[in-house]
Amino acid sequence: MKKLSVCLTFMMIFCTEIYAWDDGVTHPLITEKAVENSGLDSYLQDVLNFDSGIKTEIE
């Protein structure tokens, strides 16, 4: 366990870029998968009456 802690600390200090927080690729994909796997689409259609669900564009 101590080796893991040292390794994680080392990575956090010396890594200059963390790809998990990339707002250009990773974050949008995480958001897309979360929306696909949730009940958001049916909620938008059934409760809020957005005909196109998650594909509805709001101006």
Helix content: 40-55%
Structural class: mainly alpha
Question: What's the total helix number?
Answer: 3
- Given as residue ranges, the uncertain stretches (5+ residues, pLDDT < 50) are none
* Average pLDDT for all residues: 83
Give the total of beta strands: 0
| Overall morphology | elongated
Query: Secondary-structure element sequence?
Result: HHH
Separation of the first and last Cα atoms? 52 Å
Largest beta-sheet details = none
Task: Give me the Rg, rounded.
Answer: 19 Å
Beta content = under 5%
Number of domain modules: 1
What can you see in these coordinates?
It contains three helices and no strands. It is mainly α and 59 residues long. The model has no long low-confidence stretch (mean pLDDT 83).
